[in-house]
Specification:
By secondary structure, the chain is α/β, with parallel strands linked by helices. The protein has one domain (about 5-340): Alpha-Beta Barrel (TIM Barrel), CATH 3.20.20. The protein has nine helices and eight strands. The protein has an eight-stranded parallel β-sheet with strand order 5-4-3-2-1-8-7-6. Helix 7 (about 220-235) links the parallel strand 6 and strand 7. The two termini are about 15 Å apart. The relative contact order is 0.13.
Length: about 350
């Protein structure tokens, strides 16, 4: 198949097969996140910088609690604005359907399973109906194999039931949409659990999360091996035609001299080490024929949210100044873009 001419979209961030994505919390406008995007000017600034850096895909939440704060009461204005802004800048969206609304949760909190899968499915259908012409890729929950995000762990059994219900409903609303399983955080065991629980026919793209510390000399080897192992599981289950998206990978980039608590993998990398790691990750993973997209977590630093190095995962600092990793991301994208000319 003939590749799309780069000159057709020379001034834009989107190309049909652009593998460069980011996770960013564009919906954050709450006290618990210091109103990260409480001002539309900040949203516009982030999206403009995404476009500059070559971001083709943004993974962002469509929080159930935001959109349906009370049963059958839907509020879309905030998300309408964000979706339109990204669309105007030729940046595609991976929409993340999550978590439980308090009124529809088994424990009254966001990270417990829904009281009734039909309630969650109805919310998901409303969203896909609304954005049918603008968003084609949807992810069902985030890290359902982690007790942080799905409290009742049962080796993905209950999650896979929800995934099936949502998949069937969304395909009826938009047969052309693509469904991703919730990004898996706990390695190959979780990939096996997905298949063991009969989810094979209920996701279109396998979605993985994995993190390594660039301070570990074997880190890049681990990154390269993991999707290969996941693909073996797919092939063993006669599912090798599907692609893999890595929708979270990253590390801190802490400015020298700042005293910051370590992230969960040990000492925090500095900004230069973060930039080098980003180059290694994107250079390696975009060469894998079955890895279709890679999303860096995050685009912009958070503020006193995790109270450790995770707050410094961004390519931008909280004040929107560019880190070395931003420039490296942009260079990696431009190198990829040049490669598409041949």
């Amino acid at each position: 198949m003939k590749k799309e001419s780069v000159s057709q979209k020379e001034d834009g961030a989107y190309y049909g097969d652009n593998p460069f994505g980011v996770l960013e919390f564009l919906h954050w406008n709450h006290p618990w996140n210091h109103y990260k995007y409480g001002d539309e000017k900040d949203l516009k600034k982030s999206v403009a910088l995404m476009k500059e850096s070559g971001v083709g895909w943004v993974r962002m939440d469509f929080l159930w609690s935001d959109i349906e704060p009370e049963a059958s009461k839907f509020e879309f204005a905030k998300y309408d604005y964000i979706v339109d802004l990204l669309s105007e800048n030729n940046i595609h969206i991976l929409g993340l359907l999550n978590y439980s609304a308090d009124w529809a949760s088994t424990c009254g909190k966001w990270n417990c399973p829904p009281l009734d899968n039909n309630l969650f499915t109805n919310y998901a259908v409303k969203i896909v109906q609304r954005y049918k012409g603008k968003i084609k890729h949807w992810e069902v929950w985030n890290e359902p194999d982690s007790s942080t995000y799905w409290t009742d762990q049962d080796s993905l059994k209950s999650y896979c039931i929800l995934l099936k219900d949502v998949y069937i409903a969304l395909k009826e609303v938009d047969p052309d949409c693509k469904i991703l399983n919730g990004g898996l955080a706990n390695g190959i065991a979780s990939v096996n659990h997905l298949y063991d629980n009969g989810a094979k026919g209920y996701f279109d793209i396998l979605n993985l999360h994995f993190f390594e510390s660039p301070l570990n000399p074997d880190a890049i080897k681990r990154v390269i091996v993991f999707p290969k192992l996941a693909y073996k599981v797919m092939a063993r289950n006669q599912d090798g035609d599907k692609k893999i998206w890595i929708t979270e990978i990253g590390c801190p980039g802490v400015k020298r001299g700042l005293k910051v608590n370590n992230w969960w993998m040990g000492n925090n990398p500095n900004e230069a080490e973060q930039a080098k790691w980003l180059k290694d990750v994107f250079t390696s993973l975009t060469r894998e024929k079955f890895v279709e997209k890679v999303f860096w977590a995050f685009f912009r630093d958070t503020k006193e949210h995790w109270n450790n190095g995770v707050d410094y995962f961004g390519l931008l600092r909280w004040d929107f100044t560019r880190k070395p990793a931003f420039l490296t991301y942009k260079k990696c994208f431009n190198d990829w873009k040049r490669s598409q000319r041949h």
